[in-house]
Amino acid sequence: MENKLDKPLVWKRMKGRLAQNAVLQAIFFVATIFGLIVLALLLSRVIIQAIGWLDGDFLNSFPSRRPEEAGIKSGLVGSLWLMMIVAPVSFILGVGTAIYLEEYARKNRFTAFIQTNISNLAGVPSIVFGLLGLTVFVRELGLGRSILAAGLTMSLLVLPVIVVAAQEAIRAVPQQLREASYAMGATKWQTICRVVLPAALPGMLTGAILALSRAIGETAPLVVLGIPTFIAYLPSSVLDTFTVMPLQIYNWTGRPQEEFQHVAAAGIVVLLVFLILMNSVAVLIRNKFQKRF
């Protein structure tokens, strides 16, 4: 049998593909290294500026007009209060919406319209949500510059991300699991509660982690709501005025005294540690449920 394989032509094409692969690999490597270098430079600069300013007094002191007496206590406690509103409200509403769209809603144009708008809302600038919160929660509902108004606004901001992530997690659950549950005589709701949700929970928590990470670092919606940047007391209820760490840091960076740049760097380190701790807890919870399936 005659061998019709053109070895020179095959080798020529292989060389071209290998060269293309090498070029793409080099581009991706450079992009990764560039990102890591920039991140390392930013972190090192912030940490160096924060050295000598980040101590127990800084965590346990209220903001002050004197940089050596300024602390982040009110911002830290305010961020905790805000997360106590954002986390349950956004997660319950987001997962509930995802369950309805994936398990109950009929696949028609109306459902597709809702789905498209939810996806588009995930890319809307955060300041638009701030204007919405100012109109609805602050002025119409009369909640003022309270923790509740800010928490509901930030919940709307991160809600599309949680809905999309929860939908993807529910879709990833094999249909055979649902059919097996129905074959055992379970109802639709029992199948959702005992089969679908436990299997989809790790993916849902991943989306919630990303969403809450965005919420704790956002500043624009809170600026639009008129949340103050300087508060020297702690809130006692969800209807009290408060401030958060990003706003406090924003205030310090705008001060004319050079020492406040070091205070702002110390605040950034606290915010990063707070974010890492929060994400770590969520990852531990996610991994715990992931081991069951």
From TrEMBL:
Q: What is its main location?
A: membrane
Recorded GO molecular functions are: phosphate transmembrane transporter activity
TM helices/strands, residue ranges: 21-48, 80-101, 121-141, 147-170, 222-242, 263-285
Q: Where is the signal peptide?
A: none
Instruction: Look up the record and report any one GO term of the cellular component aspect.
Output: plasma membrane
**Membrane topology per the record?**
Multi-pass membrane protein
| Subcellular localization, as worded in the UniProt entry | Cell membrane
> Taking every annotated instance into account, which residue ranges of this chain make up the domain ABC transmembrane type-1?
76-281
Q: Which GO terms describe its biological process?
A: phosphate ion transmembrane transport
**Which keywords fit this entry according to its UniProt record?**
Cell membrane, Membrane, Transmembrane, Transmembrane helix, Transport
- Give the UniProt family note: Belongs to the binding-protein-dependent transport system permease family. CysTW subfamily.
Name of the protein described by the UniProt record: Phosphate transport system permease protein PstA
Gene source species: Geobacillus genomosp. 3
